[in-house]
Specification:
This protein is α+β, with helices and mostly antiparallel strands. It has one domain (about 1-75). It has one helix spanning about 35-50; strands spanning about 1-15, 20-35, 70-75. A hairpin with a 5-residue loop joins strand 1 and strand 2 (about 20-35). The protein is elongated.
Length: about 90
């Protein structure tokens, strides 16, 4: 069993320590169950084209105006991440 998961990846503000720090956040947007790896890879290509049709910019781009969509094949259904907000150490 495979899941083709779509996440909107964005940046979250961690806090003012050391001049300010940021971390990646992932918001689950879609999750499609597939029974074979070959089927999952085919579905991944299809979903990538659909979610990135506007040519999303990476989160580190100077012209960044919103989340970047990533599509990946995983063994579990998509969940938002991180589960807990990271702490500065």
């Amino acid at each position: 069993m495979y899941y083709v998961n779509v996440y909107e990846v964005d940046r979250g503000y961690g806090g003012p320590e050391e001049g300010g720090w940021w971390y990646n956040i992932g918001i689950a947007k879609d999750s499609v169950k597939c029974f074979t790896r070959k089927g999952a890879m085919r579905k991944r290509r299809s979903l990538y084209g659909r979610w990135n049709e506007n040519g999303g910019l990476p989160v580190h781009s100077v012209n960044y105006k919103g989340g970047e969509f990533i599509v990946c094949v995983e063994k579990e259904k998509a969940q938002d991440y991180p589960i807990e907000r990271p702490r500065y150490e």
